[in-house]
């Protein structure tokens, strides 16, 4: 298998899905833009649905690697780890806005059960990581003891990001959106968890 060609097809499809939508992009469109035969796409992925699944799997691996690096960094305090978790979450969404919207749309329409399951899987992973960081912070005295609805907190993060992307054209300081959004979600999280946030 030619990994460079496979990666090239994936990157081309990501660009086309982002600009023209999943339904509005055909295998022929991808083949023409990538300058490959349709048979090459069939060979590497089998179908457009499988291509989208491979794209999501690539994104999932990036999230897994990033979260593992954050959680495993013993030089960081738990508040610092949660701050990095939030920073990475916001940056990924804003750096790949069109694809983020595409994934959210696919999840809502539920046209592809496999894609929906993959989105649910990564959301579950994110929630587990966040939960472990909160628990670690409680055990080390940073956060107040007690149970927290981590899924609600994570959904609040995602909802805030999604609504910001929807309203982005109406925002005056577009250049500072990422910083403002990141700091806003950090503030929500600090209020949610309580305790001491000295890093």
From TrEMBL:
Organism (species): Deminuibacter soli
PROSITE patterns: HTH_TETR_2
Gene3D superfamilies: Tetracycline Repressor, domain 2
DNA-binding region of this protein: 26-45
Taxon lineage: Bacteria, Pseudomonadati, Bacteroidota, Chitinophagia, Chitinophagales
InterPro entries in the cross-refs: Homeodomain-like_sf (IPR009057), HTH-type_TetR-like_transc_reg (IPR050109), HTH_TetR (IPR001647), Tet_transcr_reg_TetR-rel_C_sf (IPR036271)
Origin: domain of life: Bacteria
Keywords: DNA-binding
Name of the protein described by the UniProt record: TetR/AcrR family transcriptional regulator
Ranges of residues in domain HTH tetR-type: 3-63
Statement: the UniProt record of this protein carries the keyword DNA-binding: yes
GO MF terms, alphabetically ordered: DNA-binding transcription factor activity; transcription cis-regulatory region binding
Pfam families: TetR_N (PF00440)
């Amino acid at each position: 298998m030619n990994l460079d060609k496979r990666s090239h097809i994936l990157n081309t499809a990501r660009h086309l899905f982002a600009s023209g939508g999943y339904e509005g992009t055909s295998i022929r469109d991808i083949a023409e833009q990538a300058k490959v035969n349709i048979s090459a796409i069939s060979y590497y992925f089998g179908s457009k649905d499988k291509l989208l699944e491979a794209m999501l799997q690539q994104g999932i691996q990036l999230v897994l690697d990033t979260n593992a690096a954050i959680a495993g960094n013993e030089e960081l305090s738990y508040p610092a780890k949660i701050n990095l978790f939030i920073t990475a979450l916001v940056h990924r969404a804003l750096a790949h806005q069109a694809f983020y919207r595409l994934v959210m749309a696919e999840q809502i329409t539920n046209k592809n059960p496999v894609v929906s399951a993959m989105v649910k899987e990564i959301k579950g992973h994110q929630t587990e990581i966040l939960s472990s960081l909160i628990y670690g912070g409680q055990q080390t005295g940073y956060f107040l003891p007690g149970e927290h609805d981590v899924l609600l907190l994570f959904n609040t993060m995602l909802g805030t990001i999604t609504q910001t992307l929807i309203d982005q054209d109406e925002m005056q300081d577009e250049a500072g959106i990422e910083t403002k959004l990141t700091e806003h979600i950090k503030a929500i999280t600090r209020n949610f968890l309580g305790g001491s946030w000295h890093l």
